[in-house]
Amino acid sequence: MAETDIAVIGAGATGRGLASLAVALGLRVTLFERGPMGGEAPDPEVIQAALRAAGARAALARDAARMGIGTGEVPVDWLALRSHLADADADAAPESTAARFEAMGVELVRAAARFSAPDRVAAAGREWRFRRALIATGAAPVVPALEGLETIPYMTEETVHRLEERPEHLLILGGTGFGLEMAQAFTRLGSRATVIEPARIAPGADPAMAEGLARMLRREGVVLAEGQEAARAERREGGVALLLADGTRVEGSHLLLALGRAPRLAGLDLVTAGLPDGSLAADETLRLRGTRRIWAAGGVLGRPGGSDTGILARSMLFRVPGTPAAPPALRVIRTEPALVELGVPTGGAELETLRWPLADTARGSAEGIDSGLVTLSVDRRGRLAGAGLLAPGGLEMAGMLSLCIGRPVSELAGATLPHPSLSAAIARAALEHQAPMVTNPRIRWLAGIAKRLP
């Protein structure tokens, strides 16, 4: 029987990150992957990012006329666009190839793995005894039990990149982040897009942020059918159709499922691993409850891929006692403007909510940004508990806020920022926390004394 220090099941961003670090530390690492690795098949996340970027360029060209710059019609060459998507994927592939990890010294097993004992993994007819193991199998797109769905072609996050032609009318089932991102991207590239969501788009997000995003998507031409549930799917000549619960029939050329993701656990045999109910429940260190040898991280726990390496290094590789400081919760919708939420959501009973519109900044005025919003959640001690952004460039602006979670909001109010910048809205929102001070009688009394000083 083979021996290994670290068994990693799944070579996604989380698994690769831990495997790279562990082998660099001199540990024996065995990485199990049953699917393709970098360069062997397109990476859906890279291609989606390139698709969003292409849509953004087209939108900028069309919007230039608002500033007096005529561009005329903005044609989209789908074949050239597909070539760009392939190039972007090829450029990113070397970071995750099998050859790269084998050159590092990682033992790579290209087969499905399962637990054969609480301290053993079996794959490809062999067995490995491990000291510690990581489950990083990620998550798969949810496919609903929708009548008629099995009779029609549909796409998911993992297959949308296979489109050989631009959709004439893309029906998107689900108003999640991925669904909204693709709706905007394809609309900008000349398709029509209809999003069908049983509740409201961006479920779980700050209602003010979600409403603002909905307005901006509708302005670009995306049709949002909120509060509508699909009852049946049908094939039609030249495309697909969805019959909604209220009797409405919506027809399109293509169907995209965007109903979220579910953890990939099939075939792992978690009961044999020592987890009686066969499910994953991790503590703050990401170690699974009920075992001292197995951790889980990334998409299989519903966490962003590649974001858990620091926690795993501390608790799994170095076995540092105590609970590591948890990073702030993160929600990201990569539309333009992006919707980003960090930390504690707004609206808590013991939190003060501060808001400032991007339109009320110098850069917002200069660039004609008439919507967008910053929200800050402040606790009783005046510390930043959470924040939200609906802003162009919000993904980059979020870094400033992430570092300030748990710190006095006054630090944001006094931040040194380039002028003009959209980040000024963050500082202006933070200043609102200090606004009541000017009406405080004691503060006004001190100001009266100070004015007499030389």
From TrEMBL:
Family annotation (Pfam families): Pyr_redox_2
Every FAD/NAD(P)-binding domain range: 5-304
Swiss-Prot/TrEMBL keywords: FAD, Flavoprotein
Keyword Plastid in annotation: no
SUPFAM superfamilies: FAD/NAD(P)-binding domain, FAD/NAD-linked reductases, dimerisation (C-terminal) domain
Protein's UniProt name: FAD-dependent oxidoreductase
Organism per entry: Pararoseomonas baculiformis
